[in-house]
Amino acid sequence: MAAVTRRIRGQSLRSWMLIAMVCAVLPLLISALTGYSVYHRTIVQPFRDVMTRQHDVLLEFERIQSGFWTLSSAMNKYALTGDETYREVFETARQRVEEEFRNIEANTGADPHLRDQLTAMRAIWSRLSRDAQEVLNQRTGTEGSGVSNVAAALAVEQEFPVAANQLESVLMRIRDVSEANHARALEAFRRLEYWALAAILVSIGMMVLGGYIVNR
């Protein structure tokens, strides 16, 4: 132990200054690396993932909303004219809507809120698609004439705006969740600032300690 003490006391001034500099700089380096890791892990990557996923879901829901109007128009024109072309237009639009729902299912992942919204919208779409298909399954009497049960077509036509409004409500809820996630990210950023402040204070303390060592 005495030999170790003598060896420490026998160090040159340059060695003590080097030790002091390391003591002063090391906390800054550690705090910088830790800060970057914490910032990237707790703020940047989760925030980016959530925003990207929710942005994709919003776009897909908006395309579904647009598809509703195409479906409504095709069904109405078929009901009025009996033109088989509109049945094909309806089927193409229906398949696109189904594809958008599958894309949303792939994007929601384990997000419970998005899955709840998707389940609610899926139920609305299933009912709407079924009712519209019943109208399209009606055969017209003669070429150029509409379906026999026009009242049923009108009833389904009124369902489309209701479904579009319900989808708009879903979009608003998703946007609200997105804003809440943004607020949480800002809160995490504030916590990181507190960590940075603590690191600065520690660094100052170590610099004082380094100066004390040099003065010895």
Automatic annotation (TrEMBL):
Annotated source species: Cereibacter changlensis
InterPro entries: CHASE3
Protein name: CHASE3 domain sensor protein
Pfam families registered for this protein in UniProt: CHASE3
Signal peptide bounds: none
Source organism, top-level taxon: Bacteria
Keywords per UniProt: Membrane, Transmembrane, Transmembrane helix
Domain CHASE3 residues, every copy: 51-179
Transmembrane segments: 16-39, 194-214
